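Q: Hi! First time doing this. I have a protein sequence and I read that you can turn it into a structure. Is that right? Here it is:
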Amino acid sequence: MYTRKRRYNESDEDSYCELNSSGSSSKSQEMTTIPRDTNKWKPYILDRLHLSWDGAPKNHKELLNICADVPPLNVASKQAADYISEKIKIDFPFEHLKVMSHADLDSIGQELGDIKSHLQELATAGTYSQLKMNVHIHGQGFVEAVKKLIYFVSVEEASYESLFVPVLREFCKACSFLGCDGIKKELIIEGCPVAAFPDLEFQAIKIPFGSLQGYATVSTAELEECDDSRDDVHTRPNTRLSPEQVESVGSKFLPWDIKGAAKHAGQLLLEVKRSAFKPCSFGMILIGSKIIMTCLEVSPYYLNHIGERLREEDKGKLYYSNMFDIFKADDRKILVNSFLRLAQAQSVMT
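A: Yes, that's right. Below is the predicted 3D structure, encoded as structure tokens:
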């Protein structure tokens, strides 16, 4: 079972860094300090660091095209995209699973078993390209991860939420986009070390220099009520979401509807310095079975100045896509194309 890694140990040092010395009240102190762990970041931190969300979601192609170094799909990858859709036929919103009978869940489990058996046969039945072999081998891992998740749902095991990360990781592998457990990242911000702890990350060693480059960083999050830490909370329209609304939220969500959006923005920021796409970094926010693709683009001298003090002209823009459900076939086709494009870039470096 996936186990969440221990967060940053702050037992022997302060968990906040002072951004300036103005104000003496506890509220002023909170608003003038920056947590050393991005997991504790709130939206006001983004304002202080000149980071802002774009006004509307971008489609998946526009998002990746922000960086010219993300190549379009080549012929082999286009064929692999069709192949994945053909061989991994899963199409049910996760919300439906939670209300299905045990008999219906067993039926889905049998269908998944048939898909896995077919992929096993293909893996040993002939000579295929590496892209297709990844579908055969890692597609089995994806199906098995989905089966495990469904089992935990069927027995009403509360800890099933932790199983979405393995589902995403195995599906990305089937798309030849290779990820691993996230490791601690650090960046000096305003003279203080700040750490980020991704739930999942994608990287590769750049040949011939041997430096490790990042391709995407993933964090888990939740859709929730408005974040009261924002100053404009009382002037925004009510964006509170019920569970029934989550499935159809699509492009209607706003970044501040997401508990963990500021944390993810921090991860993207700490990823930029080692990103293969500098001055951009890409990521994903994982909300259950739903995925929002993200990108941070910073101005030319942003990283030069953030260690001491940002100038007025130093800015960063956070871009995001619509929400895609990895269990829905149409949504998954979009994700496949995006993951294969990032996989092409990743494979060039290894």
